[in-house]
Design brief:
single chain; BirA Bifunctional Protein, domain 2; Enolase-like, domain 1; 2 domains; 4-stranded antiparallel β-sheet; 3-stranded antiparallel β-sheet; 10 strands; 34% helix; 22% strand; elongated; Putative lipoate-protein ligase A; ATP-binding; nucleotide-binding; aa-tRNA-synth_II/BPL/LPL; ligase
Amino acid sequence: MKEEEVPLVRRRSGGGTVYHDIGNTNYTIIMPRDSFDRRTNAELVCRGMHQLDIPASVNERHDIVVDGKKVSGSAYKLVNTRAYHHGTMLIDADLKALGRYLRPPPKNLVGKGVESVRSTVARIRDYSYTVDHLSFCEAVADQFRRAHNAEYRPPIELTEAYMNEYPKIREYYDEIRTWDWIYGQTPDFTHRLQKQFVWADVDIHLQVHRGFIIDAAVIISAKDLIAVASRLAGQLKNKQYSDTGVGEAFSFVGMNRLNLQERHIDQLAELEQWLVSAL
């Protein structure tokens, strides 16, 4: 994702990671908390799909499926007297990219969060040559108006100008783009990173809490780098689990407080580059 400049966004509701591209449409239904029901909302979306001649149904997990394949997942949040239920619809998404970006984490990355349930997915374009973003939105909106006896309202485009008129929307938009929000509240996890360099074997263990490295162990097989390994482990503690944090941890190399030889400095530069790419 980093190499291909795919942004990572963390939402307020629960649920697993979702892949978004121009072929994926999101929908949201906001309601009083007492009226919230996942199946009812999913069935409303299904009725919209039936208008488009797509034989969709709701499974036992409240996912929307076609021929047993998942085309839409959803999540929700309950706040005081209100609730919202939002979901995705894979209209014409790039499923190869979806599989690539949502691949399971490596075995050396162990987290304490709840694992997502993996499902076979499909696109509704595979069941309709004419469906697109606009026709899906219109069909679901039509079913919403019928179900709630609501009048038509023109859509609102969430532009910079619109957000500037509503400070709370702007505040929320800005908050979810920060490092503290995206990474600072992630579940605890441990990450073991191993690499065989020409000059030594490296084994690094990181323990991460709320996006910060709270403990680290570094083993470098080269005898002349034992002191460097110990120093690096100490430097990694209390740093962000990020490119920036790793860069700060390696800052002692540039200061050369350990009187490192030039080849050692080059080796540590290679180590830093690898560690950044491996996070």
